[in-house]
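Q: I'm teaching a short session on how sequence maps to structure, and I want students to see two examples side by side rather than one. Could you give me a first protein with its sequence written out and its structure tokens following it? Keep the formatting plain so it prints cleanly on a handout.
A: Of course. Example one:
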Amino acid sequence: MATPSDETPKTPITEPIPTAPPVAAAPKKLRPTRISGTWIAVLIAIVVLIFLLVFILQNGGNTTIRFLWGEFSLPLGVALLFGAIGGALLVAVVGAARILQLRRQAKRVTGRPATSSPARRES
């Protein structure tokens, strides 16, 4: 007597090979923009100003300032703030002079006007 399994031809059982779903391109990481950098700088400046305000309020006692032939009285915190601003202005002037010097030198070397961004090469 024949069994049902004998009647059907034996073929190898193959399972479909699972295929991976199409891989979507990984989202590109966004580069920081100038505005995001500015926003971060503004937040840092706010924190610095808060610390500066606390410093000035805690050092409110008057002090006598003598400079050259002048003499005047200011709160200590305000006097130190003026000193810091004067130092920052001095550094800014020296830095600006150096930048101008380097731009002039770059202009002489390349024979082109110096720009703030590098020139693009054409392919």
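Q: Perfect. Now a second example for contrast.
A: Example two:
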Amino acid sequence: MNKQEIDVKQKIIISAKKLFSEQGYEGTSVRKICDEAGVSLPLVSYHFGGKENVFLAILEPLEKLPFSAETGDPKQDLQKYLEVMMAFYQQDREISLIVRQELAMNSTRADKIITFIQNSTNKLKSILENGRDQGVFQFESISNALRFILGCMSMISVSNTGMLEVIIGEKEVGDYPIEKEVIEFIYKGIRS
């Protein structure tokens, strides 16, 4: 594949990601993607084979998150995991919005999304189980601990939309790093 083809594919992915995050999968047509990308309609079929494959290409980075190997120190492993996940969602807010929309709607694409994020969820589960076995973390239910942590992390991307600030009545977020507070909040919630 030459540079021009790579550029066209990248334009399509960038445009589709923007539109899927703003208008949802169902509200985004291939024509809208092409108009946003400034490319001709047949190029989506040529490069991806259709809208669903563009959608799947957008999710591929979820499979390749750079998790480090577990160190045996559950607190350190949890911190590294949370840093990687929050950095990813901060850098690619559109994917976070797309994932949340599709899972919340239980769309026909939800199973495909789950397949992409299963690796990261299994990593978190392993860290939590290791921490519980070592007596570092204390929680009654692994499922509830996972829900709690994943929910906290997903709120990072919501806060970046300004929606939470409107709900809680704040106009400014402040100078504190929210990621650090989220990590501390999660750790305090599950430590023994």
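Q: What should students look for in example two?
A: Point them to this: The mean pLDDT is 86. Also worth mentioning: The chain is about 70% helix and 0% strand.
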